[in-house]
Structure formats: structure tokens, C-alpha cells
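Preprotein translocase subunit SecG, pasting as requested.
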Amino acid sequence: MGKKDKKRLPPTGAGLVRYYEEEEKMGPALTPEHVVVITILLAIFCIVLRFSG
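C-alpha cells follow.
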């Protein structure tokens, strides 16, 4: 089967799933650095809330 001859078949038998090379671009693209920074900021925010009351 060539790359141009892609057929979409339903998943069948024994839990086999066919993964397609097509990417779905939904939502913002985040780099790992963004995730780390957001996590640190959220942790600091939670600590400030914990000790502000």
C-alpha cells in the first residue's frame, strides 16, 4: 500500500486501533517550557493562598 492510497477502515478485532499520520491542531500549542512555567506559577499561587488566610 502506498502512502497516497490511504483507506480509512473502522477499528476491528482484539482492540487493534489504526493510528493515522494526520494531526489534529486543536487548541494552543504549548512547549514543555511553557508547561513547566505554568506549573511553577500555579504552585506559587496555591502556596500564597494557603498562607494568606
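Note for the archive: The chain has a mean pLDDT of 78.
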